[in-house]
Write a structure and sequence with these properties.
This protein is an alpha+beta fold and 265 residues long. The protein folds into two domains: 157 residues, 2-Layer Sandwich (Arylamine N-acetyltransferase fold), CATH 3.30.2140; 76 residues, Arylamine N-acetyltransferase fold, CATH 3.30.2140.10. Helix content is 35%, strand content 28%. The longest helix is centred in the first third of the chain and has 20 residues.
Length: 265
């Protein structure tokens, strides 16, 4: 089913989609400060987020990037709400905690998902909640499917079919809910953000990302991976491919941390 928007609605949706894509290109998804600070709790108030992400160019992860995007849209007068999701990656959501934040925005009566904090898998445009398949700026096909018990699933359509990314609902979540989820994700030993380096950078034509010390680039639907074996190479790749601002000393320290984690992982 396709949502039929008025000319004004189409303009608003296009404006939102451009905001999403520009935000993704300007800000690096990453958990660097979790690793460098040995799990210091990341602050979610607007001033701290704006200073970190926009002024200091440190980027952030879902609770930071989506929270800042949400706050900026509120300032612009958008009808938008925050929600929490269970990340599934093709698995059942039954035993998954709510460890992901994103937003639902109302565009002329239609509800759309917007997510600027899901690493290299984030959709670069808004996705309607009515089951319509949407292609983002990289021609990836996304769809939100209705599930059981008033839940929804965001997924991508691959050659082999639907692949779920996460499950969410439209409950009214409050600030303590996000702070608790952020605390778990920021500190718990079972959180992938405390034990792995995760980074992603969007540009006009490609997505660059790190999973620990494997550097990957997706361009024109093709993916290329390579291992980063030295601290100097790590610094060069970060400087060239990411908008994240790190000093050489921080890069060398980060490389040692990730190298050590991989050795004992």
């Amino acid at each position: 089913m396709r949502i039929i928007l008025s000319e004004l609605g189409e303009y608003v949706k296009k404006e939102i989609d451009n905001k999403v894509f520009e935000f993704l290109k300007e800000n690096t998804f990453n958990n660097v400060d979790i690793l460098l600070s040995n799990r210091e709790i990341l602050r979610l108030d607007f001033d701290s987020l704006y200073q970190k992400i926009k002024v200091r160019k440190r980027g952030g992860y879902c609770f930071e990037l989506n929270e800042l995007f949400y706050r900026l849209q509120i300032k612009d007068g958008q009808d938008i709400q925050r929600v929490l999701a269970r990340v599934t990656y093709g698995e059942s959501s039954e035993n998954k905690p709510r460890t992901h934040q994103m937003s639902i925005i109302n565009i002329m009566g239609g509800l759309y998902l917007v997510d600027v904090g899901f690493g290299p898998y984030a959709p670069t445009c808004s996705i309607p909640l009515n089951g319509e398949v949407v292609e983002d700026f990289y021609q990836k096909k996304f769809i939100v499917r209705k599930g059981k018990n008033d839940t929804f699933q965001l997924g991508v359509l691959k050659d082999e079919g639907f692949f779920s990314l996460y499950e969410f609902d439209l409950n009214q979540y409050r600030q303590p809910d996000f702070e608790l989820a952020n605390y778990y994700t920021n500190t718990h030993n079972d959180s992938k953000f405390t034990n792995n380096l995760l980074m992603a950078q969007f540009s006009d034509k490609k997505i660059s990302f790190f999973n620990n010390l494997v550097f990957s680039v997706i361009e024109n639907g093709e993916r290329e991976d390579r291992n980063i074996d030295s601290a100097e190479d790590f610094f060069k790749v970060l400087s060239r491919s990411f908008t994240l601002k790190l000093s050489r000393e921080e890069c060398l320290k980060l490389f040692r941390i990730v190298k050590n984690q991989n050795r004992h992982g």
